[in-house]
Amino acid sequence: MNTFTSRFFYFPLLFLVIVLHFSVFGDSPHNPYGLKGVNELYLAICIIFALLLVLASAEEAPREFRVLMYYCLYSMVVFWVLPAVFAYFTYGQPIVYGLIEERRVLFCLGFAPVLFLSKRVSTLQFERAFIYAALFAAFLSWCFKFGVIPDMRPEVRSDDRPDRSSIGPFLICFGYFYCIQIWSKGASPISGAARSKTLYLVLAALLLLTLVFATQTRQLIVLCLAFTLFCLRAKAIIWAASLTILLSPFYFYPSLLELLGLNVEFYDSSLESVEDGARSITIAAIMNHLDIVNWLPSGSLSLMWQDGFIPYFGEHFFLSDVGIIGTLFRFGFLTFLVIPLTLMIYRRIAKNISPDMSFIYPVMLAYFVIWPLNGLMEYGQPVIAMLFVIHALKARHLRSQERIHERRTYSQLQSCY
């Protein structure tokens, strides 16, 4: 690969694709810099790109690419098509509206452009593009918090906190995961090359501070802390002790938190009452609905079709806020089959790519912790796709390290890559 082309063409393109993959500029009520249609445009590019790669590669496609296409096919059929079909039979909603409602599942196809570009840069360049993208999202979050860049939303809901932003939050979280993993091992999770532990610890602290002070989303903070515990394991006690010492001044002098801009009232109210109004209303409505329909699948409705769920459950009904409970609503009794089967298939796919699961396991376990609050299968596909990309790059690196005379036959490689 030409060094000039890699550095000045594929590297910035990879940075841009990662930014789009994690919806840094995606339109949402909490993103002050969201642009309408950006997510849809990126999904259209992913669909076209994946189709072109399938047509162009055929039997010559790398094994990891073909295996990950099976992951996309399964995810799209189960979590994109089936809810639309269930909504058609339950509410009479045209299937096309159901597909529009669950379009975020198509982010699984994002692995194709990310993996394609990642193979055209070095491991260090990939890691830099990824970390730079996370730092870019953090930079925008701080710019919004301090008013450097004005809010671009046409209107802000009255119940939103004015200092809260959601600019690529899962990119920031994933960047934190990667930095902590490098700090823990002192080496790249992909190539095993030595990395500066101090640098990545500083970057991890910066990203975590962004989530605490700028993004201010409780479940993301819990997600990061859970990953830290699962990743460090034995070192977790030392990590917890260090955090206690570092945070002790804020315990004795709470006014310091206000000087730093932390919304103390928000986090204080969170400790006093874990219950969220809209969330508790949605959960109660779902359980009552499941009881009425005998736990039959109900799919999901789109606001573009007869105001979605509003005529049935009111304005405070959001499947996206109740995680696995929302999955129960979509699939009913089938949830108890779909979820274990999906986890088994995802694990089998990862094992087929590479047997080393040292990074995948802590990430997935951390997401299980917040599963009651965030739909992993429906809304976490950008994260899962990126996990598989990193896993595939690791397998590719391991394959490249084998000496020519030591390389095994294709049948022997199947259990490793």
UniProtKB/TrEMBL annotation:
Note whether Membrane occurs among the keywords.
yes
Keyword annotations for this protein, in alphabetical order, are: Membrane, Transmembrane, Transmembrane helix
Q: Where are the transmembrane segments?
A: 7-25, 37-56, 68-89, 129-147, 167-186, 198-214, 322-346, 358-373
The protein's name in its UniProt record: O-antigen polymerase
